[in-house]
Amino acid sequence: MQTPAIIDCSKAPAGPRLVAPRIALFTGAYNHIADGVSRTLNRLVGYLEQRGASVLVFAPTVPNPPVRHEGTLVPVPSIPVPGRPEYRISLGLTRRHRRLLATFEPDLIHIATPDLLGFQALRLARRQGIPVVASYHTHFSAYLKYYHLQWSERLLWSYLRWFYGQCQQIYVPSTSMIDILRAHGIRHNLYLWERGVDTNLFNPAQRSYAWRRNVLGVADHEVIVAYVGRLVWEKGLNVLAATIDRLRQAHVPFRCLIVGEGPARRELEARLPTAIFTGYLEGRELARAYASADVFFFPSETETFGNVTLEAMASGLPAVCADAPGSNMLIEHGRTGFLATPGHVEEFAGYLRRLILSVDLRRTMGRYALQRARHFDWEAVLNRLYGYYLDVLAPALQPAGDGAATELPELTATAA
Question: Pick from 279, 301, 181: which is nearest to 228 by CA?
Fold first, then answer.
């Protein structure tokens, strides 16, 4: 297997000008943490390179990263977030990075994080006349309460309005998130860029009663309520634990399965002593865990898109989620699952109880969830983004070396 490329900035090669677009991607998460942002961006880079584009990714990294990255990664200096070492704070670009970027001669700069690295990339793009686009991956204001930073919300939105106001296009993963951005004054150049799901991997055929019995110790007739995601309090884990406790107090018969890893695991294990914790799973093991469960429970209200919700739906599970950006554009309330008021333990418990106690309801909703998930095809999702790129790039793409005009794919898009 070929080793992913990592560029040493001290050895930046000069190359011939390519007809295919050159794209520089700046992101705060790429291979040092296995989250939805890094998985989405790696999939994007792999797709772009298959289309013939040249992509250079500037991002923090760590020794022995958990993600095998796509494309060519240029590590940028970074430090761990105090108290949360799985996250990294970028320290920005060095002179060597700037020289490498100048040698690369990007046609387009794509910024995925509005941090110091993103700010410097934006400033470089404006100074050099390079088109710049951005993707919105994190519902920043929803995280503030978890870090006791509610006082800074007005400043945050002021900065985000300025930052995204400099970008020609902003790619947002859900219509509900677009509505929130518009409500806070980010109203122009918003383009819907949803996420897809690999239905060859995530599907009901992955269900394994042998795995349930032999690994989880769950009998065939028992109902499994599953949570999948990083074990961080921002994912609504307090609500999850309180809801599970409420169901236990009501003597509702079920088993709780927690799939994921993170700094909240030890405390969550103490609060949910009867729950089954698998740790971090990926690939076929993750697909088997989804499909072997019966109900998906995801109370997070900090998502921009519910990647895990979509994977659960593709696995044939009805879902009970927070009525918040991310999941609420995926779940059809009362048809593919239920949407509860964020933080409302009684609502979550009530919806879960209905599903736990009715196999017919689980089967019906699971069937509709599977049908809806099939609409989210990765190829179509990435084609859409490439069309957005081409709308920006079309005037600037250079002709081929023999003087012939570059023929662009017939991909067009309109703003949301």
Answer: 279
* H helix intervals, 144-257: 153-165, 175-183, 209-211, 237-249
Q: Which helix (H) or strand (E) holds 23?
A: strand 22-26
Greater model confidence, 15 or 81: 81
Place of tokens 């076929």: 284
What CA–CA distance (Å, rounded) separates 192 from 189? 10
Which fold, 204-373? Rossmann fold (3.40.50)
* Confidence band, pLDDT 50/70/90 cuts, at residue 407: very low
Same fold, 5-196+377-393 and 204-373: yes
DSSP letters of 320-355?
A: EEESSTTGGGT--BTTTEEEE-TT-HHHHHHHHHHH
Domain boundaries, the chain: 5-196+377-393, 204-373
Mind listing the pLDDT tens digit for each residue in 207-249?
999 999 999 999 999 999 999 999 999 999 999 999 999 999 9
Q: What are phi and psi of 135, to 5 degrees?
A: -120, 140
169 within 8 A of 133, measured Cβ to Cβ: yes
User: Which alpha helices (H) appear in 20-115, and where do they start and end?
Assistant: 36-50, 95-104
Could you tell me which residues are beta bridge partners of residue 78?
90
User: For residue 4, what pLDDT is reported?
Assistant: 55
**Type of residue numbered 235:** K
Q: Which CATH architecture has domain 5-196+377-393?
A: 3-Layer(aba) Sandwich (3.40)
Q: Which of 334, 330, 340 is nearest to 365 (CA)?
A: 334
Model confidence at 414, in pLDDT bands (50, 70, 90)?
A: very low
Q: pTM of the prediction?
A: 0.84
Average pLDDT, the chain: 89
Please state the separation of Cα 302 from the chain's center in Å.
11
Structure tokens at 220: 């065939």
Q: What are the b/e assignments for 149-161, b being 16+ CB within 10 Å?
A: eeeeeeebbeebe
Residue 119 structure tokens: 């700010």
